[in-house]
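Closing statement on the adenine sub-project.
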Amino acid sequence: MRIDVFTLFPDWFDWFKTQRHVTNAMALGSSLECVDYREHTPLNWGQVDDTPFGGGAGMVLRVDVVEAALRARYGEDPVATRERRRVIALTPGGRMLDDGVVEELAAEPELTLLCGRYEGFDERILDHFCSDQLSIGRYVLAGGELAAMVVCDAVLRKLPGALGHVESAREESFSAALGGAPEYPHYTRPADWRGWEVPGVLLSGHHARIRDWRHEQSRARAGTGEDDSLS
Ligand code: ADE
């Protein structure tokens, strides 16, 4: 998986790149690289945004600046780039990120994530350079960087070898293995703390009963206690 993030704040990702599942994914051949719009702007003094036509508050990321950055990275017209790789703009109104979307993205060989700032993108960027728009929730962030990090985090941890334990990603909240339901509760030592005891079944050593109990808990959390799709 090769991920390119286009941003005005590439150094925001320096910390993220040190996280264990990210370094694991990198060690296994994935990459996460940032492209700074400002380094490629054709305008003077590092200008990347402008006031909106028609008036209004805020600044809008310019289409010529985004085109220059995409061209510099991929050496072609960005209208062609989106035909051969997913070019995803992070926008508050985009398709909502969930486990299904993350699975879909994790199967891609290459991703491009475009972060907006200020009032967002000139609409022509979305219309002509992007294959998708993704949102991490119906609220407005100051920019797309944190949303891009959420996408990278969720996608990279799905890659084989990124997590220490293969099962951690297989049977987790909202996964197909749990029928899309939230994950069951976990407990660790001590088995009794202030009288708060771990459910006895988990200490029983009965793998089949533990599995059934966990799936039952997962279904109950989803509010689908009657659903037997997991058994
Ligand atoms: N950019 C600003 N707000 C956002 C959100 N909620 N999701 C994705 N990108 C964003």
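DSSP finds ten helices and nine strands in the chain. With this model delivered, the sub-project is considered complete and its resources will be redirected to Aim 3.
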